[in-house]
Amino acid sequence: MIHHDVIVVGGGLSGLRAAIEAKRAGVDVAILSQVHPGRSHSGAAQGGINAALGNHPDGHDDTWEKHAFDTTKGGDYLVDQDCAIQMAKDAPRVIYEMDHWGCPFSRFEDGRIAQRPFGGAGFPRCCYGADKTGHYLLHTLVEQAYKLQVKIYVEQYVARLIVHEGVCQGVVAYDMIHGGFEAFTANAVIMATGGAGRTYSNSTNAVISTGSGMFMAYHAGVPLKDMEFVQFHPTGLFTTYILMTEGARGEGGYLINGLGERLMEKYAPKFMELAPRDITARSIQTEINEGRGIGGGGYVYLDLRHLGAEKILERLPGIRDLAIHFEGVDPIEAPIPVVPSQHYWMGGIDTNVDGATSMPGLFAAGECACVSVHGANRLGGNSLLETIVFGRRAGAEAARYLEGLTEKRPNARTAFTAAQLMEQKVEELGAKTGSQDAYALRAEMTVAMREHFGLFRDEPTMKAGVEKLLSIKERVKGIGLRWTGSVFNVDMIRTVEFEGMVDLALTVGMGAVARQESRGAHYRTDYNTRDDVNWLQHTLAYYQPDAAGPRLDSKPVTLGPFELQERKY
Ligand SMILES: Cc1cc2nc3c(=O)[nH]c(=O)nc-3n(C[C@H](O)[C@H](O)[C@H](O)COP(=O)(O)OP(=O)(O)OC[C@H]3O[C@@H](n4cnc5c(N)ncnc54)[C@H](O)[C@@H]3O)c2cc1C
Question: What's the predicted TM-score (pTM) here?
Fold first, then answer.
């Protein structure tokens, strides 16, 4: 059994930033991560990170108030305004901090951090490092974590929480290198495990974005919030769903339909290609559904040719490489076939503005958390910002929580039992002959999510989707392990986590059926307007061990200075 004051699960931007802050507060902190922190999905982020620095010639009048307003409107008013305001206020200082730590942001001629326009924003406020922003930010934080000698355990798959008398006291992890499960006790645990994109078959996310932090918290009794809100990015590559950053449109790229028109003229005449993602993705899908895809087919074009080779090579070199290698298209010479693709999880573990959950000792930050800054639809560039702002706040809050504790010795017996339970579970899975194939079931689930809970939703389609998920959940009981080796057993990880993924899928499905309105990314053809009278509220989903799906509840949205208005762009 290993003990640390604070354990952070996940080495992406939010986990690293949380660990750095806790360490700076003088507590003993360790990160447990399934992959080396530098390989976290944060490193795949391309386009940039928002902060009202006002550096762009067209952006001198930008302020944190305007950033908070754009965020609130972008989220279709399901945003807790106090949290959005806090994020927008914290943004400039965290950007300058990253800059001082050596993050190589792109620059304007006068040396100031460059900013580009991004969707749904009134000003160009997205700071970037070419189209490799996430990579640069991530490596800057990895360096800081090393410098502060944060203890980092890599290739550790965290499989469950240790909870003693309602208090979180650590985690159980599978040691991928040496085999076996180990209990790591702690006085505070910070979940920073990223999104759950791989619940869908058409995702831009890394294969490890399976939502494990969300379902661990959920299974331990902590509610998940607003899970029905799933973001589809307008531009994934047609054949692989690999992301083509919004920065490509921020730099002036066009979206072209089969008739050769700039399709956004019809849907968002003012913001055009830089309308928020929910609106842009639905516009593209409408064109495709109505036969105006390219050649009448299932995709449209992202056209960058008019930007010229020099700009593409300087600002979007990574996009060009990806388009060449994965779609066989050089954007300097030809338009890129794109299609809306699952991209981001607005919902997650319900936390307050400092990352605290309803369970003492358990905190969460980053994409796995739902502070409620994105509401029903996240704006591009706000997620990287969220990871750093709320990672920092969660780290500080966990350190404060420790100061207030009188009893700091986690219960060893509970921890030991939790590890044993995992060993036992895997043994049972290994002993099963396995009437069901875990991988075939997973494929069935991800396709069901795509087909039944996509961009356009209606009751019969969604109810049929929930039925499929319930049938999959039933059949999960019949899965076993293909391989029972103790070391680097990825088969075991994928099998163990699948049950949790189905539970997450059910929170999406049942939350979506229940919400009888259209708001942000949740668009219903049978209730196609926003209903503030009945639905200006967060959904909370509670795990019920004895029932197939969650118990749904609600929670008020925190309103503030920004009055509700119709969303037009
Ligand atoms: C292709 C792509 C491009 C993007 N571009 C942008 C952008 O330009 N701007 C923007 O604002 N946002 C962007 N986003 C969104 C943003 O990058 C993510 O929301 C954010 O980086 C998530 O960070 P995180 O720290 O929450 O999680 P991640 O970076 O996903 O890290 C998760 C960590 O948790 C660990 N982990 C997970 N499960 C376990 C487990 N069970 N046990 C142990 N460890 C575990 C992993 O090893 C990893 O270290 C993009 C996302 C994608 C997919």
Answer: 0.98
